[in-house]
C-alpha cells in the first residue's frame, strides 16, 4: 500500500480524476462527498467542509481505514455567480466559507498528523480566475485568490517539518458545465486560450499527482497553472 491520500470534493470532475490518478499510482485514496454517493471503486466519507465536527469525524474515519493523511488535496468548492450589484451577502459568504475556510479546516486537520510524521503534501485546487479575475464571479475569484496566500503561508510555516504546500490553478476544463455553454460563449473562451482547447480533468490530475510526488519534493509555495496559457502564469 502506498500513501494515505484524501481528496475533498472527489466524487466528480477534477476531484474524481485526481483520486483516480493517485489510485493508479498505488496509493490508498478516500474522497469526501456530501449528498451523492462516492464513485464506484473509490472509498468515500461523507463530509461537509463548512462543518468542523464533520471534518474531524471524516479524518478519524480515514485514519482508521488507511492511516493518517499523508497527502491532502483540498478540491471541494462551490460557485454562486452573480454580478456584483446583484450578489447577496449570503452568496458571497457561502462561496468563501466552502472554498477558502473549508480548505483551512481540512488543512488544519491534516497538518496535525503531518507534523507528527514530519512529512506531508498539501495541494490546494485554485483557479485561473483567482489570478486574472472574472466578471460575475467576485466571490469565487476572491476565494481562489486567497488560497494563494494561504498556501504560501503554510509553506513557510510547515516547511521545516518536511511538509510542502502548493496550489494548482486550472483554467477552463472540459465538463458537463462547459459542454452546456452556448457555442458563442465557448468560442469566446477559447479565443483567449493559446492552446485553443479546454483541459481535460485528467491533465489537471496528473499535475496534482506530480506535485505531491517525491519528484517535486523541493517545490513548495508554488502556483502551478494548468490553463493552456490563458493566464500566462501571472
Q: Would you mind describing this structure in some detail?
A:
With 234 residues, this protein is an alpha/beta fold. It has a single domain (4-225), classed as 3-Layer(aba) Sandwich (Rossmann fold), CATH 3.40.50.720. It is built from eight helices and seven strands. The protein has helices at residues 13-24, 52-66, 89-117, 129-132, 138-158, 176-179, 183-191, 201-211; strands at 4-7, 28-33, 43-46, 71-74, 120-125, 163-170, 223-226. Strands 3-2-1-4-5-6-7 form a seven-stranded parallel sheet, with helices on both faces. α1 (13-24) links the parallel β1 (4-7) and β2 (28-33). α3 (89-117) packs parallel to α5.
From the structure above, extract its key features.
234 residues; globular; 15% strand; 8 helices; alpha/beta; Rossmann fold; 45% helix; seven-stranded parallel beta sheet
Detail the topology: elements first, then pairings:
Layout: E1 4-7, H1 13-24, E2 28-33, E3 43-46, H2 52-66, E4 71-74, H3 89-117, E5 120-125, H4 129-132, H5 138-158, E6 163-170, H6 176-179, H7 183-191, H8 201-211, E7 223-226
Parallel strand pairs: 1-2, 1-4, 2-3, 4-5, 5-6, 6-7
What is the residue-mean pLDDT, rounded to a whole number?
94
Beginning-to-end CA distance, first to last residue: 38 Å
Within CATH, the superfamily carries the name NAD(P)-binding Rossmann-like Domain
Number of individual domains: 1
Q: Approximately how much beta-strand content do the residues carry?
A: 15-25%
SSE topology string? EHEEHEHEHHEHHHE
| Class computed from helices, strands and strand pairing | alpha/beta
Amino acid at each position: 500500500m502506498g500513501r494515505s491520500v484524501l481528496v475533498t470534493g472527489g466524487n466528480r470532475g477534477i476531484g474524481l480524476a485526481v483520486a483516480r490518478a493517485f489510485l493508479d499510482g498505488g496509493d490508498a485514496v478516500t474522497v469526501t462527498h456530501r449528498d451523492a454517493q462516492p464513485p464506484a471503486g473509490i472509498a468515500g466519507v461523507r463530509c461537509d467542509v463548512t462543518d468542523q465536527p464533520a471534518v474531524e469525524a471524516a479524518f478519524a474515519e480515514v485514519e482508521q481505514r488507511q492511516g493518517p493523511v499523508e497527502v491532502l488535496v483540498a478540491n471541494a468548492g462551490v460557485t454562486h455567480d452573480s454580478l456584483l450589484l446583484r450578489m447577496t451577502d449570503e452568496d458571497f459568504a457561502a462561496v468563501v466559507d466552502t472554498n477558502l475556510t473549508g480548505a483551512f479546516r481540512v488543512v488544519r486537520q491534516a497538518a496535525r498528523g503531518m507534523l507528527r510524521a514530519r512529512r506531508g503534501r498539501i495541494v490546494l485546487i485554485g483557479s485561473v480566475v483567482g489570478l486574472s479575475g472574472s466578471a460575475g464571479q467576485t466571490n469565487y475569484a476572491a476565494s481562489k485568490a486567497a488560497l494563494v496566500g494561504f498556501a504560501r503561508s503554510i509553506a513557510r510555516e510547515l516547511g521545516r517539518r518536511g511538509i510542502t504546500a502548493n496550489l494548482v490553478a486550472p483554467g477552463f476544463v472540459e465538463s458537463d458545465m462547459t459542454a452546456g455553454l452556448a457555442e458563442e460563449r465557448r468560442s469566446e473562451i477559447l479565443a483567449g486560450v493559446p492552446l485553443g482547447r479546454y483541459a481535460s480533468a485528467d491533465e489537471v490530475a496528473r499535475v496534482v499527482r506530480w506535485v505531491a510526488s517525491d519528484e517535486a519534493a523541493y517545490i513548495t509555495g508554488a502556483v502551478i497553472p494548468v490553463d493552456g496559457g490563458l493566464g500566462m502564469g501571472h
